[in-house]
Amino acid sequence: MIGAVQIPCGVAGPVLISGDYLDGKSYLPMATTEGALLASVNRGCSVISDAGGASVRVLKSGMARAPVFRVDDVAAVEALCEWVDNNEERLMSAAEGTTSHGEVLDITPYSVGRSVYLRFRYDTKDAMGMNMATIATEAACELIEAETTAKLVALSGNLCTDKKPAAMNAIEGRGHSVTADITIPTAQLTERLHTTPAAFAEVNTRKNLVGSAKAGSLGFNAHVANVVAGIFLATGQDEAQVVESANAITTAEVRDDGLYLSVTLPSLEVGTVGGGTTLPMQSEALEMIGVKGGGDPPGTNAKGLAEAITVGCLAGELSLIAALSSQHLSSAHTALGRE
């Protein structure tokens, strides 16, 4: 280590959150060099709070590690998959013997030719859990090699999938799968954000859905990565995992009572213990949110952080899409951007 790189850190909020793990007003610390970002997210937080707050739920959790094995032929593929199915409890026991916190949730086989991938999924409690999952999976792989003809090629076969954009994570989830939503009354949307439900929803459809599909994007959102990256840096998360953590879908619908807006993050990989979360400033940022250290019961703080980040993303999407639909994006960056 030769020193540290300084990144400006600010706070958005407070924002009113109604979740299973956070309930009430929370501040959102964000580290960023983008001048307009904090102001934009803060504007979204204010509107969300005035509309009664955002609802957010962690719908699924589990950190994945997927080793790849080589077998002789397709018959051996079938035999290995059957062996795994018949010995799942033994594999779970071997993996869980390496950790006092981790728990194997399931083991799912996939194959291509004579390559077999076993996607182990773990409950890693308040840790992000990548190291925990790797060490535990290695122990299970040793049992497989000892009792079958399969040969381990790599402890990670990229079906996990870590630090890469992947449909697997978007569909099956990795880390925490979280959705936040809110309905903004029409009058409030017009007065505070200078747009209408119809104009907002059209931008979301033509930009985030159709435009993203035409581009072949795996993410269907406006700028979720901005918020994910900002809070990741502020709270000591693995910044490389922004790649899959920001793989989100934003939806917007016109309702009789206003605009319905949601953001779904299927693979948000966060923790509140271990790694960069122990650094002094990052620890303070977690304390600001109310999720520092291990939760009681274990896992609740990491899920609370996931809820906070997802609501932050909702605020960011609300503000940016409104700016686009009211043609205010350029003027906001001109006024707030750092030169």
Can you put this structure into words, describing what you see?
The protein is 43% helix and 25% strand. It has 339 residues and is of the alpha+beta class. The protein has two domains: 9-61 and 177-336, 3-hydroxy-3-methylglutaryl-coenzyme A Reductase, Chain A, domain 2, CATH 3.90.770; 67-154, Hydroxymethylglutaryl-CoA reductase, class I/II, NAD/NADP-binding domain (Alpha-Beta Plaits, 2-Layer Sandwich), CATH 3.30.70.420. Strands 1, 2, 3, 4, 5, 6, 7, 8, 9 and 10 form a ten-stranded mixed sheet that branches. The chain is globular.
- Approximately what portion of the residues adopt beta-strand conformation? 25-35%
Uncertain runs: none
Could you give the order of the helices and strands?
A: EEHEEHHEEHEHEHHHHEEHHH
N-to-C terminal Cα separation, in Å?
A: 30 Å
* Class per helix and strand makeup: alpha+beta
Number of strands: 10
Q: Count the DSSP helices.
A: 12
Q: Could you please say which CATH topology of the largest domain applies here?
A: 3-hydroxy-3-methylglutaryl-coenzyme A Reductase, Chain A, domain 2
| Overall pLDDT metric | 95
Report the helical percentage.
40-55%
Quick one: overall form?
globular
CATH architecture of the largest domain: Alpha-Beta Complex
State the domain count: 2
Main sheet?
Answer: 10 strands, mixed
CATH superfamily of the largest domain: 3-hydroxy-3-methylglutaryl-coenzyme A Reductase, Chain A, domain 2
CATH class of the largest domain: Alpha Beta
Rg calculated over all Cα atoms: 22 Å
Structure keywords:
globular; 10 strands; 3-hydroxy-3-methylglutaryl-coenzyme A Reductase, Chain A, domain 2; alpha+beta; single chain; ten-stranded mixed β-sheet
